[in-house]
Every structure is written in C-alpha cells, then in structure tokens.
C-alpha cells in the first residue's frame, strides 16, 4: 500500500483477473482506480495496459463506444511509448471488436497487423503473441467463409497453445474449430469440439466462452431441426449472458429463438422474441446515426469518428459531415481505429 508502483500493478492484476472471470463491472472499477492514482513514471507506463483491460471489459458488457474509446487510448499510449507488444494486444482486441459488429474486413485487418508486429519485432517475445494473432485471424477468416484459411490459422494457434500449456487459448481454439465444422455443416465433428471447449471454459471460469459454446450448440441443433434441444441450449446461453451483462449474446439468443418459433409457427412466443430483440437493439444503440439502419446485423464496412461513435462507412462517404450527428463533436482527424 506504501508503494504507488506496486499498488498500480496490483490493481491492474486484479482488473485482469476479473476480466478473465467475466466480472466486467469489477474490471472497470479496478481500471478506474489505476487511472485515478497519481503514480510515478513506472505507474504511468502501465496506463496503456489498463486502458486495454478496460476496453475488453466494456466489450464484454457490449458497451461498444466506451470500448472503442479505451482501445483508442491504449493505442495512443502504445505509440507514444513505442510499445509494440501493447500495440499487438490492442490489435487483437480490435479484431474481436469488429467481429462482434460484423465488419469482417476490419476484423481481419487488425489481427493481420498484430501478426506483422510479431514478425517485425517479436523475436524476443513469447510465442503467445503469435498464437493470439493467428487465433483472431482464424475467427475473421471463418466469418468470411474462408474455412481452409481459418482452419490453418487455428491449427497454428492451437499448436503453440498446447506447447505452452495455455488453457484459455486452447479453449478458444476448440470453440473456433467447432464453429468451423458447424459452418461446414459437419455437426458430428462440431459437437465433441464444443464439449472439449466447455470442459476448459468451465474449469477456468470463462462464462462468456461458455455462453458462446451454448449458442454454437444451439445453432447445430437448429441445423438438425431439433428445435426443443436448440431452445434448451439457447436458454442456457441467455442465463449466462444475463449473469455477466453481455447484451450482444442476449440479442443473438432472441434472434435465433425468433427463427425457431417462426418455424414452429408459435405466434405468441414469436412476438415475445421480436419485442425482446428490438429492446436489445435499442439498448445497445446498434444503429447508424445517419441512415437509422442497424449495425451488426450483416457484414458491412463501418467507420468510427474521433468521438468513437460508429457509422456505416458508406453513410459517412455519401452524406459527408463536419461533425458527429450523435454528439455534434467536430471531426478534426480520424483516430487510430
């Protein structure tokens, strides 16, 4: 408690630990404590890592604008301190950010940038940085339906994760392998991968990972037209997502349930899911402030203004603006992301 450097590092480690356990509100609180401390130069050098952890927590809570603000700050610290490791980690997180908002071009660009940083500067780094960039590239390739590329990157990431005993990354790779098999309509291969991933996710306490697995399993049951089993799996995903505050996962569940009830021609349940889905969209503010159409519903190019409000790229190009339509801040220069 007497040493500001140790104290800042302690709070940062508490923030990171809570982030891994999906206690995102606690993560934000510990990060704010770090940033409010009047530490020494050493403490200030940790601020970039604090902003990254805060961004990941806000992304876990589906608060996209605040997540982007935090990532912007983290990148600024990385550039000012010439910290390539931090820049690599932020690029991987930005890949995940744009995966969730379905701008798959940016979702691939950022982990590719991370992989470049590893190749150019990472000779003395841990191999986990290479594994991390390969994993995020794999997810982007899967979303772009480049499944051979997705499998190759995921295999590379898994190989390193196994060598280093990196259990959290192994769980993510297994989940991604399962999703790749599901995209190939090979549910017999997908199910055991989901199961293996779930064992590790449960062991390490990654509840957001568990929710993602239940969504994937639900999609497999939908492919097999086993709608009651799908609804059971999606309910489990919903309960986990609600417990950790991840609104985007809840939105996905309502969307999938809506499709199931439409197939089953259960009109009352269908209407209920439509209402809940629209409420989620409103809460998440997942719509473009220019055209009013949704963001994150399909693969579209997006662009953030310096205030970190996000719009369709085509809307910004078509309408042109000297300020943000949402907060009316003037757009002097584009940020890093």
Automatic annotation (TrEMBL):
Pfam families reported in the protein's UniProt record: TPR_12, TPR_8, zf-RING_11
Q: Which InterPro entries match?
A: RAPsyn (IPR052480), TPR-like_helical_dom_sf (IPR011990), TPR_rpt (IPR019734), Znf_RING (IPR001841), Znf_RING/FYVE/PHD (IPR013083)
Q: Name one GO cellular component term.
A: cytoplasm
Q: Which residues form the signal peptide?
A: none
Q: What is the protein's membrane topology class?
A: Peripheral membrane protein
- As recorded in UniProt, coiled-coil segments are none
Q: Any idea which GO molecular function terms this record carries?
A: acetylcholine receptor binding; zinc ion binding
What UniProt keywords are attached to this protein's entry? Cell membrane, Cytoplasm, Cytoskeleton, Lipoprotein, Membrane, Metal-binding, Myristate, Phosphoprotein, Postsynaptic cell membrane, Receptor, Repeat, Synapse, TPR repeat, Zinc, Zinc-finger
One biological-process term from Gene Ontology? Answer: synaptic transmission, cholinergic
TPR repeat windows: 48-81, 211-244
**Location(s) in or outside the cell:** Cytoplasm, Cytoskeleton; Postsynaptic cell membrane
Q: What is its main location?
A: cytoplasm
Q: Which residues form the RING-type domain?
A: 288-328
Please explain the role this protein plays, according to its UniProt record: Postsynaptic protein required for clustering of nicotinic acetylcholine receptors (nAChRs) at the neuromuscular junction. It may link the receptor to the underlying postsynaptic cytoskeleton, possibly by direct association with actin or spectrin.
Q: Which PANTHER family match?
A: 43 KDA RECEPTOR-ASSOCIATED PROTEIN OF THE SYNAPSE (PTHR46574:SF1)
Family, per entry: Belongs to the RAPsyn family.
What protein am I looking at?
43 kDa receptor-associated protein of the synapse
Q: Which organism is it from?
A: Labeo rohita
Please spell out the taxonomic lineage of the organism that makes this protein: Eukaryota, Metazoa, Chordata, Craniata, Vertebrata
């Amino acid at each position: 408690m007497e040493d500001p450097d140790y104290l800042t590092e302690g709070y940062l480690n508490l923030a990171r630990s809570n982030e891994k356990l999906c206690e995102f509100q606690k993560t934000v609180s510990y990060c704010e404590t770090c940033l409010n401390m009047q530490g020494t130069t050493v403490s200030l050098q940790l601020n970039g890592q604090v902003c990254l952890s805060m961004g990941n927590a806000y992304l876990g809570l589906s608060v996209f604008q605040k997540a982007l603000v935090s990532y912007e700050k983290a990148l600024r610290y990385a550039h000012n301190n010439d910290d390539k490791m931090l820049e690599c980690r932020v690029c991987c997180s930005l890949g995940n950010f744009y995966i969730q908002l379905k701008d798959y071009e940016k979702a691939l660009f950022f982990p590719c940038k991370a992989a470049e940083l590893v190749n150019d500067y990472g000779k003395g780094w841990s191999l986990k940085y290479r594994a991390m960039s390969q994993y995020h590239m794999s997810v982007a390739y899967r979303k772009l339906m480049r499944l051979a590329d997705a499998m190759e990157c995921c295999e590379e990431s898994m190989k390193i994760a196994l060598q280093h005993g990196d259990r959290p990354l192994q769980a993510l790779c297994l989940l991604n392998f399962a999703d790749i098999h599901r995209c190939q309509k090979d549910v017999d291969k997908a199910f055991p991968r989901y199961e293996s991933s779930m064992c590790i996710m449960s062991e390490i306490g990654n509840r957001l990972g568990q929710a993602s697995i239940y969504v994937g399993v639900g999609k497999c049951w939908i492919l097999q037209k086993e709608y009651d089993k799908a609804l059971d799996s999606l309910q489990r995903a919903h309960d986990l997502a609600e417990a950790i505050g991840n609104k985007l996962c809840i939105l996905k569940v309502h969307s999938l349930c809506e499709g199931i009830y439409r197939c089953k021609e259960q009109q009352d349940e269908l209407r209920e899911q439509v209402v809940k889905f629209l409420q989620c969209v409103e809460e998440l503010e997942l719509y473009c402030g220019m055209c009013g159409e949704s963001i994150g519903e399909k693969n579209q190019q997006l662009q953030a203004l310096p205030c970190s409000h996000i719009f369709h790229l085509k809307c910004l190009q078509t309408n042109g603006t000297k300020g943000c339509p949402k907060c009316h801040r003037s757009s002097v220069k584009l940020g890093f992301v």
